[in-house]
Write a structure and sequence with these properties.
The chain is of the alpha/beta class. It is built from 5 helices and 6 strands.
Amino acid sequence: MPTLLIFPGIGNSGPEHWQSRWERANPDFVRIAQREWDNPVCAEWTAVLESTVQRLGPSVVIVAHSLACLAVAHWAARPHSPVRAALLVAVPDPDGAAFPVEASGFSPLPMQPFSFPSIVVSSSDDPYGSSEHAAACAAAWGSRLVEIGAAGHINASSNLGDWPEGLALLQQLCV
C-alpha cells in the first residue's frame, strides 16, 4: 500500500478542502509539514518535499494542490528520491497576474518530463491557471491531463465535498 502524501498549496488546506477531508477519512494519508505556509519559498518547499520523501520511502504518492504542484515540478527537475506517482490538482501559472506575490522562486517553471507517473487535473475556470497552461504543463511533464469542467480552483470554495472523482483518479495512480 502506498503512502499518500498530502501537499497543500499556499496557506495550507483548511478543514473543508478535499485534501483535509481525505486525510481525516484515511489513516494512510500523511500531510507534509512546511515551516511557512503563507509566504512560501520554492527552495524551502522542495527541500522539505525531498526530506519527507526520503523519510517515507519510495512508495509515496504525492497529492499536490495549487502551488504545491509547482514545487513538485521544481523538485522533479533535479535529482530526487524516488516516488510512485503524483496527482497534481489546479496547477497555477507562476507568471500569471493572479499568482500570489507572497510566493517566491516558483518561476521559471521547469517543463521537462517527470521520472514518475502523474495526472494533472484542470478546471476550465481556474482563476490562477488557464486550461491551456495546465495542458502545456501536462504535456511537458509527461502527465495525463484530466479536465473536470468549471470547478474554480478545485478547492474548498469549489464545493466538491469529499471529491470522489479526484479520489478515483488517485486510486488509478496507486495500482
